[in-house]
Design a protein that fits this description.
The chain has four helices and 17 strands. The longest helix is centred in the last third of the chain and has 14 residues, at about 175-190. It is of the alpha+beta class and about 230 residues long. About 25% of the residues are buried. The chain starts with 15 loop residues before the first helix and ends with a strand. About 15% of the residues lie in helices and about 35% in strands. A hairpin with a 2-residue loop joins β1 (about 40-45) and β2. α1 runs antiparallel to α4 (about 175-190). It has helices at about 15-25, 75-80, 95-100, 175-190; strands at about 40-45, 45-50, 55-60, 65-70, 90, 105-110, 115, 125-130, 135-140, 150, 155-160, 165-170, 175, 195-200, 205-210, 215-220, 230-234. The protein folds into three domains: about 15-80, no CATH class; about 90-110 and about 160-234, no CATH class; about 115-150, no CATH class. The chain binds zinc ion (ZN). Zinc ion (ZN) binds near residues 118, 140 and 143.
Length: about 230
């Protein structure tokens, strides 16, 4: 008996607009001091997201429902995007993945609890003591000089993550593995065939990559730790 079942198009495919939104969100910031970066936004004819280290942009018609950029002088955002194309260098993604797979994994931590200042000494750990007509600063009796009623602690969560200290050289610049993993993730989300470097001028200036419909700007890091470099794409 033939028990083979033919799948007739019920497989869930992601809606394209959501795919673009996911790619944007991957690059949004989480800095409380820069709330405008905490979600994707429109500027001029683009949908954009940035965390100040990377920035992604694509045609605004590809993504519905964003709001206009909520910062003063939003054209600063588009002004910082290099318009020129001066490179056509296809990134060897397999070589990068291979190098990253050899990086040792380290323990991942969760932050547990929160740091709450002692109400008596307001975090100083010392208070003024008085004896007859003498005064002197000594350990706060309420917190025993700790200054805090409770403190946050880092607790291993059992997961292993790639040691974020490693780096990857592309052309004349150096990038954190974390940033390159973000590029690979962007490629995966957008289901893009390749990652192509299209712009770079000097070691400490932005690099721009084309990934499917998107462009992604990455800021290189200082080239200091030679022994932390796991692969070099020249
Ligand atoms: Zn105290």
């Amino acid at each position: 008996m033939n028990t083979e079942i033919t799948n007739t198009s019920t497989e869930a495919k992601p809606v394209l607009g959501e795919v673009y939104l996911d790619a944007l969100k991957l690059h949004q910031g989480n800095d409380e001091l820069r709330p405008w970066m905490k979600k994707p936004f429109y500027v001029k004819d683009l949908a954009v997201a940035t965390d100040a280290h990377t920035m992604i942009w694509l045609d605004k018609n590809l993504v519905d429902g964003l709001e206009e950029c909520d910062r003063p002088n939003p054209s600063i955002v588009t002004d910082s995007m290099p318009k020129e194309i001066n490179e056509n260098f296809t990134i060897d993604v397999e070589k990068i993945k291979d190098a990253i797979s050899k990086i040792e994994l380290v323990d991942d931590f969760n932050i547990v609890g929160e740091s709450i200042k002692c109400s008596e000494c307001d975090g100083d750990g010392e208070v003024e003591w008085e004896y007859e007509n003498w005064t002197k600063d000594f350990d706060c009796p309420k917190c025993d000089g700790e200054g805090y009623k409770s403190s946050e602690t880092r607790v291993k969560n059992g997961k292993k993550v790639i040691d974020p200290g490693f780096q990857i050289d592309i052309k004349q610049s150096r990038f954190s593995v974390e940033m390159i993993l973000k590029l690979l993730k962007t490629q995966e989300i957008l289901n893009a065939k390749e990652i192509v470097l299209c712009y770079q001028i000097r070691p400490n200036a932005p690099y721009v990559f084309i990934i499917g419909e998107a462009k992604v700007l990455c800021m290189p890091m200082q080239k200091i730790d030679e022994d932390k470099v796991v692969v070099n794409l020249a």
